[in-house]
Design brief:
By secondary structure, this protein is α+β, with helices and mostly antiparallel strands. The protein has 2 domains: 1-53 and 110-154, Glutaredoxin (3-Layer(aba) Sandwich), CATH 3.40.30; 62-105, no CATH class. It contains 6 helices and 4 strands; from the N terminus they run αββααααββα. Strands 2-1-3-4 form a 4-stranded mixed sheet, with helices on both faces. The radius of gyration is 23 Å and the shape is elongated. It starts with a helix and ends with a helix.
Length: 154
């Protein structure tokens, strides 16, 4: 009976250690488009960087929706002043304008990792980047990466 308990404990330890090796010493980054993919299997015990690449277009669309002028024709300078006053007086609009540069910074991740399609789950350790394309379940993608890493250690 006692040997069965030890066997069960050792099996649980192996499963936990195998599933946790992919994040112990690396960075997990997920690039996706929320208009098309619903992410699932996001590990709660690891730091996962999520980058929604549709965010810049959604922010721009909302800014354009809020910055509609319906008054008499204005000069370029007057229109610019109207826009600045509108942004200053509308806290939501100001927040959107402030968030726009950061949302474009996310696109640098695509260039840095040379991503060809999304969703992409990237596991980075040292100088190695492991990428799984087309898998919206992050845990499954990380398990695929881990299987590859463990298989290539020979």
């Amino acid at each position: 009976m006692m040997s069965k308990v030890y066997l069960l404990i050792s099996m649980c330890y192996c499963i936990v250690s195998a599933s946790s090796t992919y994040a112990a010493d690396g960075v997990i980054t997920v690039l996706y488009d929320s208009r098309y993919e619903q992410l699932s299997g996001v590990p709660k015990n690891y730091n996962v960087r999520l980058f929604d690449l549709s965010k810049p277009s959604r922010i721009e669309k909302e800014i354009n929706r809020r910055l509609v002028y319906k008054g008499p024709r204005l000069s370029e300078y007057e229109m610019e002043m109207w826009g600045r006053n509108k942004v200053a007086s509308d806290s939501t609009l100001k927040s959107l304008v402030d968030d726009l540069p950061l949302s474009y910074a996310y696109l640098n991740e695509v260039v840095d990792y040379d991503i060809k399609k999304i969703p992409a789950v990237i596991y980075s350790e040292s100088d190695n980047n492991f990428v799984i394309y087309g898998q919206p379940n992050i845990t499954k993608a990380l398990n695929q990466i881990n299987a590859y890493r463990v298989g290539n250690r020979r």
